[in-house]
Amino acid sequence: MPTALIAEDEPLLAEELADTLAKLWPDLAIVARARDGIEAVRMVEQHAPDVVFLDIQMPGMTGLDVAKQLGSRAHIVFVTAFDQYAIAAFEQGAVDYVLKPVAVSRLATAVGRVKDRLGRSPPDLSGLLRDLAAHRTDGRNYLRWVNASVGQTIKLITVEEICYFKADSKYTLVVTPNAESLIKKPIKELSDELDPAQFWQIHRSTLVNVNFVAGVTRDLRGHLQLKLKQRSESLPVSESYTHLFRQM
């Protein structure tokens, strides 16, 4: 019976991945779950799994650091939020990946590929890992997704689909083109964790995704208002942030 380790620091995502794998690959035994990179390395030493489903962004050690430690001891499927360069690199290597949020069809493809490779030794990923490390921008791992409450459901939302964040009492409103949901992470914490090239603070209570900015107008009092793509509302810009839009 083939064995696997799931290394994922978000318990809900780890549970979802395990449940989906049980349906797609009933013969696969999940022998352990790790909540951080250091624990993942220790559990691989202990259980020697055939496959590791490895989250790239984990505390302690990143998934790339873990993969470097593991060498060729296990087949690896990287679990990652959207990163265009990383995906291009994975497509060129003898390794598979799934994107968060995990799609059943994509995981099924990864499972099929891993099954085909189980009879062979795991590939040497040292070249791929060096290539990925060389193209990291400033060494920071920016926030790629949030877990948001929609009614009684917890939904994983990638930051690429978020139009803006807005402080709402003790919660923060997460606004996408077609929905609104809530998280408990404050705006100040989000501003430190999001890529500043993608999310601009335009008010003490608002962070906007620049990819959703359609234009800038002035209201009757001369204050700047942002028009958004795929949303009908406008967002006010505080005086201290108007310099961001002088060339628009």
Structural summary, described in words:
By secondary structure, the chain is of the alpha/beta class. The chain folds into 2 domains: 3-134, Response regulator (Rossmann fold, 3-Layer(aba) Sandwich), CATH 3.40.50; 145-245, LytTr DNA-binding domain (OB fold (Dihydrolipoamide Acetyltransferase, E2P)). The protein is built from 7 helices and 15 strands. α3 links the parallel β3 and β4.
Mass-distribution shape: elongated
**Using DSSP, what is the number of strands?**
15
Strand order of the largest sheet: 2-1-3-4-5
Instruction: Look at the structure and give the mean pLDDT.
Output: 86
User: What's the CATH class of the largest domain, please?
Assistant: Alpha Beta
**SSE string, helix = H, strand = E?**
EHEHEHEHEHHEEEEEHEEEEE
Strand content: 25-35%
Tally of DSSP helical segments: 7
The stretches of 5 or more residues where confidence is low (pLDDT under 50) are: none
SSE-based structural type = alpha/beta
User: Whole-Å distance between the termini?
Assistant: 60 Å
Report the CATH architecture of the largest domain: 3-Layer(aba) Sandwich
What is the count of distinct domains? 2
Per the CATH scheme, the topology name of the largest domain is: Rossmann fold
Topology (elements, then pairings):
Blueprint: E1 3-7, H1 11-24, E2 29-34, H2 37-47, E3 51-55, H3 63-70, E4 75-80, H4 84-92, E5 96-99, H5 104-117, H6 126-134, E6 145-150, E7 153-158, E8 164-168, E9 171-176, E10 179-183, H7 187-193, E11 199-203, E12 206-209, E13 213-218, E14 224-228, E15 234-236
Parallel strand pairs: 1-2, 1-3, 3-4, 4-5
Antiparallel strand pairs: 6-7, 8-9, 8-12, 9-10, 11-12, 13-14, 14-15
